[in-house]
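Chapter summary example.
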Amino acid sequence: MMATPKPGPVQINSRNPIPLSSSQETQVRELYYKRVRGYCADEIRDFASCALNRTISATWACRQQRLAMNNCMIAHASQQEQDAAREEWFATRDERRKEREAKEARKKEQEKFHRAWWGMPPLPEDEEPASTEGKR
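The structure predicted for these 136 residues follows.
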């Protein structure tokens, strides 16, 4: 009987192996784009000022500015930059949670004020106001 080799631990190449939801990945992608646009702000500004008040002629009239902008964006659009954006997203996760909790608290206070103003009975502490998210 031949012994089969035991599989070793799976190696993950990503620096942040935690899987994210689609909306979280979108937030990371927006951070990534913001960082790359920040590096290339001068080139983007040059292209935008050249293309201002032009239509189809911007294609050839602003060719050098467009190429400079694209080269800058390509140079800074790297896996390292994506990893940095992902790390920044994880670093600011607690801040976003605190903002979300503060928003919830403001919403509850506004609901109390609204009920008091219109003479409605207050909600019991364990009952949440009806959510209108996702309803049309």
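To summarize the output: The two ends are 66 Å apart (CA to CA).
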